[in-house]
Design goal:
It contains eight helices and two strands. The protein is mainly alpha-helical.
């Protein structure tokens, strides 16, 4: 497959949604592939993060699958099956489930979460290769303005 060169004028006329969609899919695919190399899926990592008091969980209390789905609603993908992902983590001893159906992270689960996080700088480095921080910041500012311009909500 060949990629045709687009001039700055051509690029300025391109639809942002098309390019942000392509970028999103490429970034997700790359991130998920990297996590698989580490022995985890992205939803498994999210489960560990959301249940760890050393990460996203404010209190370290267990959560049910519906509570976790609600907590992850802004980034979970339609094909992600949190129940199946949790079962895999239960089998590995990274989670436990109480009699009310709440999932809890184990010490070994929290160690696994921390180990995965240690790989984040390398992943970021691969994604950001050839992009200086100033250009990255400008890109995010432009995207944030486009969100505002279209009535979207910023975090």
């Amino acid at each position: 497959m060949t990629t045709r060169h687009l001039s700055d004028t051509d690029l300025a006329a391109q639809p942002a949604a098309y390019w942000t969609g392509l970028a999103y899919e490429a970034l997700i695919a790359s991130t998920r592939a990297h996590l698989v190399e580490l022995g985890f899926t992205q939803p498994q990592f999210w489960l560990l993060r959301n249940l760890s008091k050393r990460d996203i969980s404010p209190d370290g209390h267990g959560m049910t699958i519906p509570e976790l789905q609600q907590a992850m609603r802004t980034y979970i993908r339609p094909e992600d099956d949190l129940e199946a992902e949790a079962e895999a983590l239960l089998e590995r001893g990274f989670l436990t489930r109480d009699d009310r159906g709440r999932l809890w992270i184990t010490e070994s689960g929290d160690e696994a979460r921390a180990e995965i996080r240690r790989h984040a700088p390398a992943l970021r480095g691969r994604i950001h290769r050839g992009i200086d921080d100033a250009d990255y910041v400008t890109t995010l500012k432009v995207l944030r303005q486009m969100i505002r311009n279209t009535g979207g909500t910023l975090p």
